[in-house]
Specification:
Layout lengths: L11 H11 L8 E3 L7 E6 L3 E6 L7 H12 L10 E5 L9 E5 L4 E2 L2 H4 L3 H15 L23 H10 L6 H13 L8 E3 L8 E4 L2 E5 L6 E3 L7 H4 L3 H11 L3 H22 L4 H16 L1
Antiparallel strand pairs: 1-2, 2-3, 3-5, 4-5, 6-8, 7-10, 8-9
Length: 295
């Protein structure tokens, strides 16, 4: 048997064939590639109300079924729209993994330029996280793919220190090391894990007419330390709106310090991986790193 490709070829003709063979009720709907998509999925718009998302790489192949199980239950409990999956397709026609059909969400990706100064946006994001953390799934049995309780900053220590060293001169290595070591030494989350988005940054927020409207991409959704979701304070917000967000959400000092660590680590990881080839990512991650240093 041939090995599964790590990056299978995905084009519109393949997606059309998958839809037509597995979901003939949607065979007559127009299909159009959506750009720009993220690094994890190829996305097509299907008619006016649906999207089709096919994983590009092995690390996200469980997301389709995970979101189908959890997001319809979460949606009524949070104050912003979330994607609502309607079907999961099966591997076929040479494509090796499950894939998703989801309700289309209109909107543009949020930007720091448009919303970074907005206290209203900061408070709405705090309200979303508060509702998310309090989500009660109604007795639905937990599955291993939502267990993030064992994840911590310490698992990122070696990679983060290597990135700090590699970017010395681009950013202040001593300042980055101080922020990182403060995050590592901050008291760990010692209460029951709460629901987290897990990848809560600017690229996973949508706006309509300049106002926050939706949160997308719940591949990292699970139960864990709420500090990981504080990265949004450093990817989107200015110093003033960040203060409003912190006041509305009310994290303790240790959680905030760990959140700065998450923002620094993820910003450094993305900057070292993509900045040389993607000026947009370079600018976004540089802003994130500087915001994490500022606190």
């Amino acid at each position: 048997m041939a090995p599964t490709p790590t990056r299978p070829a995905i084009d519109t003709a393949l997606v059309r064939r998958l839809i037509d063979s597995q979901f003939p009720q949607w065979a007559g709907l127009p299909l159009e590639l959506f750009e720009p998509a993220g690094s994890d999925h190829v996305i097509h718009r299907l008619g006016d109300e649906l999207s089709v998302r096919l994983p590009r790489r092995p690390g996200v192949v469980g997301q389709a079924r995970k979101e189908l199980m959890w997001l319809p239950r979460l949606a009524p409990h949070v104050p912003l729209a979330v994607p609502v999956p309607v079907a999961v397709g099966e591997p076929d026609l040479g494509y090796p993994w499950p894939w998703a059909v989801t309700r289309w969400l209109d909107g543009e990706v949020a930007s720091a330029e448009a919303l970074g100064e907005s206290h209203e946006t900061a408070v709405r994001l705090a309200g979303f996280l508060t509702a998310l953390q309090r989500f009660e799934p109604g007795g639905l049995a937990l599955t291993p793919d939502v267990d993030r309780a064992s994840e911590s900053l310490h698992g990122r220590d070696r990679a983060t220190r290597a990135a700090i060293a590699a970017l010395d001169g681009v950013f202040d290595a001593r300042a980055m090391t101080r922020v990182w070591e403060a995050a590592l030494s901050a008291p760990a989350w010692d209460r029951p894990p709460v629901w987290v988005h897990g990848d809560f940054h600017t690229g996973n927020l949508l706006t309509v007419e300049g106002r926050l409207s939706a949160v997308i991409d719940f591949g990292g959704f699970g139960l864990g330390d709420p500090a990981c979701d504080l990265m949004i304070a450093f990817t989107l917000m200015s110093a003033g709106s960040r203060a409003a967000f912190r006041a509305a959400l009310g994290p303790d000092d240790a959680t905030w310090t760990r959140g700065r660590g998450w923002a620094l680590a993820t910003g450094l990881n993305a900057h070292t991986a993509y900045a040389a080839t993607d000026p947009r990512v370079a600018a976004q991650t540089a802003r994130q790193i500087r915001a994490a240093l500022a606190g």
